[in-house]
Amino acid sequence: xxxxxxxxxxxxxxxxxxxxxxxxxxxxxxxxxxxxxxxxxxxxxxxxxxxxxxxxxxxxxxxxxxxxxxxxxxxxxxxxxxxxxxxxxxxxxxxxxxxxxxxxxxxxxxxxxxxxxxx
Length: 119
Prior knowledge:
The chain is of the alpha+beta class. The protein is 36% helix and 18% strand.
């Protein structure tokens, strides 16, 4: 039987993530913000394009989106104004630019060295 993690334990994963900081913001909060932005962007995209927006994050006025090949990247770039408009509703700094990063399927590698699956 698995023991449930105690979230008040200073060595629990939620506590470690809450304490880890990047640019003054907890790692956990940054991951939540990125996942929320990803969901918002996916909802604004055409149904055939949305599943190819694997991950989105924003920093210093730039929205970064990860997709799986150059044809989807081109389609995402055509949606730039819509993406930036939607992102501006939830980002602290108004996004003014879109960068699309291409990482082919199977090239997402977890720290363990095994390929990651993103959904």
